Amino acid sequence: MGSGPAAGSVRARYLVYFQYLGTDFNGVAAVRGAQRAVGVQNYLEEAAERLKSVVPVKFVISSRTDAGVHALSNAAHLDVQRRSGQPPFSPEVLTQALNTHLKHPAIRVLQAFRVHSNFHARYAATSRTYLYRLATGCPRPDQLSVFERSRCWALRADYLDVAAMQEAAQHLLGTHDFSAFQSAGSPSTSSVRTLRRALVSPEPGSPFVLPQESRLRFWALEFESQSFLYRQVRRMTAILVAVGLGALTPSAVKVILESRDPLGRPQTRVAPACGLFLKSVLYAGLGDLAGNPACAQQESQHPGSRETPGQPEDLMRETSGPKVLPSAASELLS
Predict the structure, then answer these.
(1) Is the dihedral of CA 299, 115, 225, 24 positive or negative?
(2) CA 17: distance to chain centroid?
(3) 78, 59 contact by CB (below 8 A)
(4) How far are the Cα atoms of 50, 88, 107, 112 from residue 101, in angstroms, in the given order?
(5) Cα(2)–Cα(15) distance, rounded to whole angstroms?
(6) DSSP readout, 248-302?
């Protein structure tokens, strides 16, 4: 016993927030094997190889996003196991090291935090918020700024009935069986979810639109829940847009929801991936780390202290140690 490569080494678990433009990726999840497609996770784990962990670093992603979907702030946990006698990396050094060695410019690590060894980025999340961006007044794709083409859904219509969309969105609030808004392939065992927030509002405007393009208007849909079904947000968005265009009445949304039929004609519409952004992932006691890191650090340095189902109780003990030495940090960042 104790003769393996990990003998005497110290494992540290971190919660990492990161963002990305999803245009170039086959989603956030890693793509394994010899396929040409690649996920955001592939790049994160490649950068983590430079941490020289005794055990290869794997990112456990909080919220899986599809190809073309963006994230203002996603989250993941990872374990770094340094060799015996080496202290754990400080969260600051870990963040800098990952950003230094990331090989894709569309990914950035926002911040890292030390967490208990039983913390789970997916199951400990208490809230997830998605933002969907729309543009109206765009009869042809080439009439939309090149800086916006992969960041919103461009609609030909000049007008959306936002009041009708807001009325329709009220039918989605609360706890329901959202089977009608779930795409095939969902791994979820239950289709019951609680939608806490569904907002439709105008955006102040895009900084990438020229003065002579005043016909273009931008709109934002925002949804909050603890978790969502596969493509639920994009399917709800497509239905609300149909209401805004006059193709459906607000009351039709209630009928669709209660039908629990994912194959009905109206609800099979899926909004394009390019307009969807994962806006935030929150954890109990931490607030919005991406939005207010200083406040989050003051509230708690060790989120997720409660035991996660299926985790042994002794994993709750946090291994402490001094911050990484400056010389080690310099080597890591070179």
Answers:
(1) positive
(2) 9
(3) yes
(4) 7, 19, 11, 15
(5) 28
(6) S-HHHHHHHHHHT-TTSTGGG----GGGEEEEEEEETTTB-TTT-HHHHHHH-SS
Residue 176: closest CA among 256, 268, 78: 256
Residues facing residue 71 across a β-bridge: 20, 278
Percentage, residues of the chain above pLDDT 70: 82
Q: Using alpha carbons only, how large is the chain's radius of gyration in Å?
A: 22
Q: What's the rounded Cα separation, in Å, for the pair 90 and 78?
A: 14
**DSSP per-residue string spanning 300-322:** -SS---SPPTTS-GGGGPPPP-P
Residue 269, CA distances (Å) to 161, 180, 236, 239, 287 in order: 19, 11, 9, 7, 34
Average pLDDT, the chain: 85
Length of the chain in residues, anyone?
334
pTM (2 decimals)?
0.85
What per-residue confidence (pLDDT) applies to 314?
27
pLDDT band at 236 (very low <50, low <70, confident <90, very high): very high
Q: Which of 66, 142, 161, 314 is catalytic?
A: 66
- Annotated active-site residue 66? The verdict is yes
**Pairing state of beta strands 276-283 and 70-82?**
parallel
Query: E strand or H helix at 213, and its extent?
Result: none
Query: Token pair of 109, please?
Result: 């690590």
Report CA-CA distances (Å) from 155 to 158, 180, 207, 215.
Answer: 8, 24, 19, 12
